[in-house]
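Following up on my earlier thread - several people asked me to post the actual chain instead of describing it. Fair enough. Here it is, all 263 residues.
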Amino acid sequence: MSGYKIIDSHAHIFPEKIADKAVESIGGFYDLPMAHKGNIQALITSGNKIGVEKYLVFSTATTKEQVPAINNFIYNACEEYKSFIGLGTLHPDMTDYKEEISRMIDLGFKGVKLHPDFQRFYIDTSQMMPIYKALEESGLKLLCHVGDRRSDYSAPYRLAKVAQRFPKLQVIAPHFGGWQQWDEAMKYLALPNVYFDTSSALYTLNREQVMCLLKTLSSNKFFFGTDFPMWDHKEELERFLALELPYKINEDILYNNFAQLFL
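Reply from S.P.:
Thanks for posting it. Predicted structure:
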């Protein structure tokens, strides 16, 4: 154990019957090896190795028809495992998004996870603006995948447009603000209502890059996240602690910053 209190702010979970297929699909999309199966027990087993106290869990709907079932699955997981904090899913093709947002609030969700590259929409498309407005009015947070050099769906500048248009919407930009697009993240996303996590970045960023990102985007707006099942908790914590950040910054990123926003 590290001696720190730890929250994993970025964990994907899937129903047992589709977990293997989902993990294979994600690994194929990013051409990266996956550390674990994507089921709940694998998450807890991995997280227990470093003493994770809470997990932010979610899954992404690739069709509008999947939304209710996925949200039900996340709700049931959170009911069974009190260490779980749930985010719901929505889809840009939904017309009944207001009803589903209301239902997510009743289910106790803290926000919504979107993945523009999987769901095939541009973050700042006009189609999504009513959904963002409804999220802002509801008080739910938005965790939106950002960054991929292979396409422009999730470019950091697109998320910046949304954050600026809806200043009361609390937005989390994972992967240090933009997977593979960290210069763009620093250019566009240093905004009052945008937060960040460390997931799927520490394997490739060097210490100098990390320090620049933390300084530009503000270390007190970062959360520790693993992107489970892509990465192992023990390995991700080792990568993070190898940065040799000051003790207080470690405390804040590993637990306090997330707790202040979510708990």
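The chain has eleven helices and eight strands. That should answer part of your original question.
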